[in-house]
Amino acid sequence: MNILTIIRDGLRRRKIRSILAIAGIAIAAAALYSLVALKEGYESGMRSEIENMGAQIIAVAKGCPYEAVAVIMIGGQVPATLPQSVTDDIRKIPNVISASPNVYGAYQYLNLSHPVIGMEKNELDAKPWWKIQGRFPEGENEVLLGSVEAAVFSEKSGEYRKIGDVITVIVSGKKVALTVVGILGATGSKDDYSTFTNLATAQKILNLKGRVVSVSVRVRDIGKIPDTIAGIEKIPDVQAVTVAQVMGTIQNLVKAAQTMLFTVMIIALIIGGIGTMNTMMMSIFERTREIGLMKATGASTGQIFKLFFTEGLAISFIGGVLGLAAGAAASLGGDVILRSIVSVMPTTSVGKISPLAVGLALMFPVGIGALSALYPAVRAARLNPIEALHNE
Amino acid sequence: MLKLNNVTKIYSRGSEHVHAVRDLSLEIAQGDYVGVVGPSGSGKSTLMNMIGLLDAPTAGDVFIADRRVTDLDGRQLNRLRRETIGFIFQQFLLIPTMTALQNVMLPLYFAGAADAKQKAMVLLRRVGLEKRAEHLPSQMSGGEMQRTAIARALANKPRILLADEPTGNLDSKTADDIYSLFSEINREGTTIVMVTHNQDLASTFPRKITMRDGRLEKNEKQ
Ligand SMILES: Nc1ncnc2c1ncn2[C@@H]1O[C@H](COP(=O)(O)OP(=O)(O)OP(=O)(O)O)[C@@H](O)[C@H]1O
Ligand SMILES: [Mg+2]
Which of A212, A236, A260 is the last residue of a domain? Predict the structure, then answer.
């Protein structure tokens, strides 16, 4: 018989109490894990989305720049456009490495709306991670499909099987035949769900001849971004925002939804914490007579403390590990819930395993457990054996 | 072996003072078998607790194995209690989540003894419970529980066994079995001090102490 067998048998034979205490810790750990994992996952997802854009500044028509950029990110009706000549004006501004004009819109295919993006070939220089199978759609009515779109089309359309095949889509009520000349390797971003074409084709089918929706700008020196923006905004009717600002705005928009989810989790955390403290304390107070007896049979203060404190740690640890597993599952569910509330979500799941979340979710509840075991364990150890024995 | 010099115990609750034991002097030799009788509230349990080092006297001195208890610090007291005294309670006070064997092993565990399991099995056999070793207290009769408690009290080979109404919760047949177990243990040299309400039984003990109002009313050798 050693301290661990004593604790193990004790926990096993006081099943309900043990389960309650372990469940309390597990709930706290699970809540904390999901909380941190979702927040981390969301932020890192958004960050990688920003990096995928490859540009630091986006120039759009005067109006609401955030609305314009939101359209760029999630698709929808274009609010206002710029003359294409603006691109050349921007290229002349100091600190600008490249300016890529883009047109955004959508076409109907297989009864669904699909985003289409028009771009110049040289924008590929800003996207070194793109792996194109086939080639860039330089010719008229040629397109490059994102990996997911390509997979779905080849499975469902009947007319498209491989590079070189034609898809017949509908844009503003008119039929248009597009030739697939390339497939984009998976990027893990929204590009996988998009269709790309050259600027002229996009302008033609979307009825935006000579116009662009936005110009993505890369700079040489990030520190001089404010000057560059000032330069861009000297061009009439043009407004510029940094990608970071846009992300900040979007994050503010989704905060409300996040806050709601997080509030629920924080409540779970508090309930778990208080529940744990209560169960731990009760389980020691209940055994006051046992403690008196242990003292009468020669247990020292240190031995009693060690016994009860170790028990608290064991409960916390078991609960922490179980909670972690539950939390990992819950944050996958949380990803689904967040997606249904928030329209701007990273393409990757925000519920992926995060070391920070694992660390916190283990340390905090185990800390609560240890703390809530500490006080009653000290009290138990200090108890006068006579009073303890007479305790009912 | 055991000596009390003018021991007084006063319990104070606010302005109320209860003289549980008054100016009591007593000497018990190694191997004695002492019955303690007296009306309820006469201070029997208080006396036992002081002898058992669970409670300190308000005044006077307690000597155990020639050591003045008031001179000892908590650690030394604990050690002396563990090595020289075994306790048996009316309510058995077994740990409900531990088997008979584990209950007997507990004092050995606290004492850091080697071969605790073998020693505990020997003790269980000694009280006739080798077949109940793996039973939980809830799966045993009152007599079996008290036997387990006796085995536990004997675990660290104490020189003094203190029993406060050990048969108070048992029927008379079971009580008789327990008493003969105590007699056997005493014959092997262990000093026993037992509180009992059974006057007839106490009269059969080699020595009988009668308490009244916290005083030693009679101290008879028989
Ligand atoms: N912790 C305590 N606080 C206050 N008074 C106490 C305490 N313990 C005992 N007393 C009082 O001291 C007196 C002696 O009590 P004690 O328990 O020693 O009597 P007893 O002879 O063992 O009685 P019984 O036969 O009923 O067990 C009683 O008046 C009791 O009320
Ligand atoms: Mg009593």
Answer: A236
A111 phi/psi in degrees, rounded to 5: 65, 20
- Taking only the tens place, the pLDDT of each residue in A49-92 is 666 667 788 899 888 766 766 666 665 666 789 999 999 999 99
User: Which residue from B7, B15, B42, B58 has its CB within 8 A of the most atoms of ligand 1, so it is best to mutate?
Assistant: B42
- The owner of tokens 């932020």 is A43
Same domain, A114 and A221: yes
Residues A276, A181 share a domain: no
Residue to substitute in B12, B22, B46 for testing ligand 1 pocket (most ligand atoms within 8 angstroms of CB): B46
Q: Is residue A300 part of a domain?
A: yes
- Residue A241 covered by a domain: no
Does ligand 1 come within 6 angstroms of the Cβ of B48? Answer: no
Closest CA to B40 of B207, B196, B202: B196
CB of B46 sitting under 6 A from ligand 1: yes
What gap in Å lies between CA A334 and CA A345, rounded to an integer? 12
Does A58 fall in a domain?
no
| Full domain range(s) for residue A146 | 63-236
> In chain A, whose CA is at the least distance from the CA of B151?
A297
How confident is the model over A193-227, as pLDDT tens digits? 899 999 999 999 999 999 999 999 998 888 888 89
Q: Are strands B33-37 and B207-212 parallel, antiparallel or unpaired?
A: parallel
In the structure encoding, which two tokens stand for residue A157, read together? Answer: 């359309």
The residue type found at A62 is K
Which one-letter amino acid corresponds to residue A187?
Answer: T
Instruction: State pTM to two decimals.
Output: 0.71
* A244 domain-assigned: no
What ipTM was estimated for this complex? 0.89
* Contact A301/B at CB under 8 A: yes
Residue nearest to atom 29 of ligand 1 (CA): B41
Q: What's the CA gap between A8 and A311, in Å, rounded? A: 8
Q: How many CA atoms lie within 13 A of B155 on its CB side?
A: 33
Domain count, chain A: 2
Candidates A149, A70, A71; CA nearest to A112 is A149
A138 in reach of chain B (CB within 8 A)? no
Q: Which residue among A176, A211, A236 closes a domain?
A: A236
∠ CA A157-A162-A166, nearest 5°, is 60
Judgement on whether residues A90 and A229 belong to the same structural domain of the protein: yes
